[in-house]
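> forwarded from #structure-qc
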């Protein structure tokens, strides 16, 4: 059995948990070497590399060195691994430092799920961080990205020919129990008289998205209800609960378990917001968020800003709403249209139900094949 040492940025993060489950479901053995943003009790064997804080970049840099020392102190566990899998640039640096401290030559895969704002800066800071990424990328066995936008707009621009890339989208894991897909026409006569329920699910980290949804709630107090599921990034949305408390048609449900809670969440929604402006102009334009796959599986159409990789994905599959700028005026126009006539929601629901499941679910064995081919073996598919 192939053994993986997984260097993760947050042991409690839902996406980290999903990746571990996909490894284990594909028959791979995982030992975590992970930081944490809050206290957690991982389901896998885990070496705690210390606590970090959102937005605290200097603290996170210091923790990379401390974490590498802690990982190297568990040399036996690290040496048992056939492969090191490092998520995000800071954990890639931590993994290579741990290898050096422990005097190991284990191959490394770099998983980049976000292109951080520091990496796109034009000044000496940006050039320095890109120099670090280039040097570590060249020494990595493979690169994993969740969106082709990252390859086109970042890696090909700065490091062309210096990596072997795999596209691993943020799909649901094949081995997870997320229940059956819905069927039937959700926009029956009874549904047509109900409020439009718009959800924002996942990392709630975008002030502009929050403002847009609150404005929709104000514009349609009796026709629209906004549901928020996830944890807010306090560094990005400093005033959160007071804005929710001020509106009777905005409901905050807090954190959730994925995939266990997804069925209930999406069953309560008519549409899901899939926009992000936390890093507008680069990462937010290039990414493909979890919610388009989750919502797609549960036949909940997404709404995305035009000109983004997410909008291109929705248009390619013909399964969601794309809204042009300025969103402050165009998004309310769309919602007003849907309030008066839900037939377009019904049409997209039917499209989503007809799409193949592997658009939303990662096939069994997919991660095993990525690992096998990166290590020089043959793919099983």
């Amino acid at each position: 059995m192939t053994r993986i040492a997984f260097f993760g940025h947050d042991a409690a993060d839902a996406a980290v948990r999903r990746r571990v489950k996909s490894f284990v479901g594909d028959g791979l053995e995982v030992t975590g070497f992970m930081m944490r943003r809050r206290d957690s009790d991982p389901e896998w064997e885990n070496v705690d590399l210390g606590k970090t804080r959102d937005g605290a970049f200097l603290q996170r840099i210091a923790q990379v060195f401390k974490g590498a020392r802690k990982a190297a102190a568990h040399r036996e566990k690290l040496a048992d691994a056939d492969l090191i899998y490092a998520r995000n640039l800071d954990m890639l640096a931590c993994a290579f430092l741990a290898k050096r401290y422990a005097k190991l030559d284990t191959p490394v895969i770099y998983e980049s799920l976000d292109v951080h704002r520091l990496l796109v800066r034009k000044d000496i800071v940006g050039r320095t961080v890109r120099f670090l990424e280039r040097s570590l990328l060249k020494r990595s066995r493979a690169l994993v990205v969740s969106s082709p936008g990252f390859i086109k707009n970042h890696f090909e621009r700065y490091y062309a020919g210096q990596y072997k890339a795999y596209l691993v989208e943020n799909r649901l894991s094949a081995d997870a129990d997320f229940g059956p897909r819905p069927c039937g026409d959700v926009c029956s006569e009874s549904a047509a008289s109900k409020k439009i329920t718009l959800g924002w699910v996942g990392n709630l980290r975008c002030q502009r998205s929050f403002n847009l949804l609150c404005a929709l709630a104000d514009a349609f107090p009796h026709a629209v209800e906004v549901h928020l599921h996830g944890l807010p990034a306090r560094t990005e949305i400093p005033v959160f609960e007071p804005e929710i408390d001020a509106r009777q048609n905005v409901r905050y449900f807090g954190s959730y378990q994925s995939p266990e809670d997804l069925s209930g969440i999406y069953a309560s929604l008519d549409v899901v917001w899939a926009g992000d402006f936390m890093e507008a102009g680069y990462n937010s334009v290039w990414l493909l968020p979890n919610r388009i796959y989750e919502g797609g599986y549960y036949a909940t159409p997404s709404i995305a800003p035009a000109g983004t990789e997410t909008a291109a994905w929705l248009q390619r599959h013909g399964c969601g709403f794309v809204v042009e700028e300025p969103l402050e005026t165009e998004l309310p126009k769309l919602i007003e249209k849907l309030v008066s006539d839900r037939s377009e929601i019904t049409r997209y629901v039917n499209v989503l139900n007809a799409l193949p499941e592997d658009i939303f679910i990662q096939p069994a064995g997919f991660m095993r094949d990525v690992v096998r081919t990166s290590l020089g073996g043959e793919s099983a598919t």
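QC bot note: The chain has 16 helices and 15 strands. The chain has two domains: 3-175+364-374, 189-359.
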